[in-house]
Amino acid sequence: MKATFVAEATDGSARAGVVHTARGQFATPCFMPVGTRGAVKHLSSADLEALDAQVVLANTYHLMLRPGADVVEKLGGLHRFADWDGHTLTDSGGYQIFSLEPKVDDEGALFKSTYDGSRHKLTPESAAEIQAQIGADIQMVLDVCPPLPSPRGVIETAVERTAAWAERGRAAFLAGPTVDRQHQFGIVQGGTDVDLRRRSAERTTAVDFDGYAIGGLSVGEDRSDTGPALAAVTELLPADQPRYFMGLGDPVGIVEAVARGVDMFDCVLPTRLARHGTMLTSTGRMNLTRAEFATSTDPIDPGTPDSPVARWSRGYLRHLLQVKEPTAPRLLTLHNLHWLFGFVADVRASIVAGQFDAFRQHVHGVWDA
Amino acid sequence: MKATFVAEATDGSARAGVVHTARGQFATPCFMPVGTRGAVKHLSSADLEALDAQVVLANTYHLMLRPGADVVEKLGGLHRFADWDGHTLTDSGGYQIFSLEPKVDDEGALFKSTYDGSRHKLTPESAAEIQAQIGADIQMVLDVCPPLPSPRGVIETAVERTAAWAERGRAAFLAGPTVDRQHQFGIVQGGTDVDLRRRSAERTTAVDFDGYAIGGLSVGEDRSDTGPALAAVTELLPADQPRYFMGLGDPVGIVEAVARGVDMFDCVLPTRLARHGTMLTSTGRMNLTRAEFATSTDPIDPGTPDSPVARWSRGYLRHLLQVKEPTAPRLLTLHNLHWLFGFVADVRASIVAGQFDAFRQHVHGVWDA
After folding, report:
1. Catalytic-role residue among A11, A143, A263, A266
2. Domains by residue range for chain B, with CATH
3. Residue B238 burial class via C-beta count within 10 angstroms: exposed 0-12, middle 13-18, buried 19 and up
4. Which residue of B has its CA nearest to A330?
5. Whole-model pTM?
6. CA gap A194, A227 in Å, rounded
7. Is this prediction's ipTM beyond 0.95?
8. Tens of pLDDT along B128-154?
9. Distance from CA of B340 to the nearest CA of A (A)
10. Could you report the per-residue pLDDT of B80-123, keeping only the tens digit for each?
11. Which of A41, A323, A331 has its CB closest to that of B44?
12. What's the rounded Cα separation, in Å, for the pair A271 and B326?
């Protein structure tokens, strides 16, 4: 097993650490914005540099169809493609494909392109190969993501198939050309069932990946159900490898997952909320479309004076949003990402200071309202 | 008459100069991008600063309806509103209104809002008042813009009404609160008829504005018709005040108008072209959507190495455009504006160097193809 994570401080199960990759390192807890088609919506790599983003996601499903993994490879791989020297991570494509009602068998998943209806098959082997072509620093193994909630039998089948695919995906990755410059993470499934989560964690860690993700816990689930399943997983994961909660990015969700030993997060929500005028602020969510902000000369969040949009008033930004000027989603995206990066930096600082529990309570106080 | 323009160099009728305002000064020839609703599409004032934009337009018609001139005023006026310390100019609203088939009489123009169908009236007096509220450095008098081509009688009536409105609009401006901090420009109409253009120029200059615009020459006209009408106007305009050709922004059009003594230009075309993937380059127009660029690692324009998007490949930018990522129109807009600002700087340099005719021929060689 390759040690890829060093904890610099812990507070209970919460960890402040560093993930080591072939490219270098990044600090955790870490929030990773989603650059679906090779760009975070409305932003460029220059913006991500200015925001001090550490890791940016890209979606294998989208890039394999447009422009094609071969085209990304010809253009120098994902980093050169987007001219981004920070870290990158690609999902396996599975999550999008399973939302398209694919035909799944033991071999893989057959699906139709949303772009042109053409038929494609993704297998554990081809997912590893395509992600090697795209060339992110971290690739994800192909897993089975059943819709949630599903009957226990469906979840159990998904856990078994995920485990079988993990072995095949890992073997393909290890035999591939990028083993020295990419990490590959396994994915633990199992719904909210603690026993199935444990079984999936054991089966997945037995394959020996470079890090582990928790899949299928963030979508359509009552959060009160997820804590035990999450804790059951993280206590079985190796301490010296990173843990990644897929699809989670709200402040309370992040502190609750960090409390159970998770290091990495991604979510489209902070950027999607921004595009619709919902701002993350030091006093909680703020709906910028409210009429009261029409003539406000205050900045979006007086508690975040270093926001990249602090120079513009709520009134101006609300106006741009209301008349659908594309400048608005861009500026509001910059704010939400800046805010969230600052938030996870605060989570990290609270762990280093041994004050994580107090910070966690503070977060609940602001965001549970 | 207030001297508001100083020619630093001339070459034939072409002028390289400086426009003086209450805010400061800007160099000419000058291209002014259009920030319709208080922002150039996809850009912020931070971007315009990075591009070294000198003057940005805003549309009175749009701002008076959304968010309302009173709201812009409450938020500190156009500069504070957009947090833009460069120069600004507002059109009168007439151009948009006349495209909506308004009811026009001697008093003003009655029109329906495109936002909610509500009815509004714009008069020469209210146009001056509303633009004073918005607070740009330069406001434009309300003129009559007949559709082109129109019968001579329609153009003649427009010239007469434009002259009458000019007197009323000027009187309202001079009696208003912003006479010390805004300029007001008159507008010459007259279609492509040299005699009507002369008459309009004489009637408009008799009112004594701070600068003069040429309206109604850029839309739907065969360019070969426009040279004589334009030259007839500029030779009647005061030498120590700026001349602004409304709605023109292509390289050949700019050098031809500069050759006839014009100083200022605005146009939505460079930014609109960008959003559709048509790039302005040192070798002419380039359609980025062409399949040949899919795997090109070259920058958009190797001849413009200081383009703000030079770090990204044609292949990457084309991909973002093809999959409709909003990052694409933003980056391509940055390129086209950077290119056009560089172009007018070259026009200026050629005048200062006494090489304008050679540069003008070079421009035709690149762009007439």
Report:
1. A266
2. 5-266 (3.20.20.105), 273-367 (no CATH)
3. middle
4. B42
5. 0.98
6. 10
7. yes
8. 999 999 999 999 999 998 888 899 999
9. 21
10. 999 999 999 999 998 899 888 899 999 999 999 999 999 999 99
11. A331
12. 13
